[in-house]
Amino acid sequence: MANPRKTLRTLGRLAPLAGVVALAAACLPEPEPAIDQATVINDNTSVRVEASGSSRTLFMLDAGDRVDILYKDGSWYRVRDVEQIEGWMDESALIRDMTRRAMEAAVAEARDLPAQNTARTTDVVNLRMAPGRDTDTIRRLRRGVELQVLDHDTTPRPGGDATDIWFRVRPSDDEIGWVFSQLIEFDAPEPIRPFMEGRTYVAVQRLKTVEDADMGPRDWYVVAERRDDADPRAAFDGVRVFVWDIEEHRYETTLRLRNLDGRLPLERIGGDEDPGFRFSVLDASGEPVVREYVMRETLPRAVR
């Protein structure tokens, strides 16, 4: 058992020291308030002395580590770790709590949105909360990541008269964001790839499947296509329908619309026996107008 007298003497000696420590702590400046908290995305992530990728590394953090966000300078955050050590981290290395909450709400809101097409990143690309070069970054996607494409938007390019094109994408079931159009490549079904003529198939919907006795099952498609020099504000400027000719054993175009100011989504409607599709365009006054077609045998007929 501890000696009560000894314990009292020890506490007596420590009391003055505790007072000095408390006084010193009271004289320290208040820590800078955090504007948000964030979670580190990857293991072995550098916290640097300055806001530069070439700056010296102070220490490393791992995926799941938490930091305070003090302020932002360009694409860098001034952060403070749990041991109250401050440094700089690239925005792509973190996901802010505010950003996570906004993304979770966006994922829930867009859960039932149908994919318009799939695409792949052609380089490292920032997945952003909103279209624009200065919007919050959710994370950085590697080259070759497959994306579901959902929507289209544009923003003015900073420092010039050009327009940037952005696509809303879903990299996974629990992520949604915006990517710069020049850093992704759209997919196209292999059977109709030879008919692209340098255009991008922004949206692809399968209309039905027919059975060719000699060639096997073949799909019919409606696609929303876009020329490279189309107005950037239009998600697509053409619509094309491909049907399989069972007698000639080849694809035929039974509808081709050009010079559209098209808006996503391109939607398939109807059943397998009477499929159709609809999409929106802007009229001369800038108002959206819905166009709807139903397949009558191999020919699309406008019903709206």
Give a description of the structure.
The termini are far apart. 28% of the residues are buried. This protein has helices at residues 4-27, 97-109; strands at 36-40, 45-48, 57-61, 66-73, 76-80, 86-90, 94-96, 117-121, 125-128, 137-141, 146-156, 163-172, 175-180, 184-186, 200-212, 216-226, 238-245, 250-257, 262-269, 276-282, 288-296, 299-302. The protein is built from 2 helices and 22 strands. Helix content is 12%, strand content 48%. Mean pLDDT is 89; it is low at 1-25. The chain has a 5-stranded antiparallel β-sheet. A 5-stranded antiparallel β-sheet has the order 13-12-11-8-14. Strands 15-16-17-18 form a 4-stranded antiparallel β-sheet, with no helix packed on it. It has 3 domains: 36-97, SH3 type barrels; 110-183, Roll (SH3 type barrels); 189-302, no CATH class. It is mainly beta and 304 residues long.
Condensed summary:
The chain is mainly beta and 304 residues long. It is built from 2 helices and 22 strands.
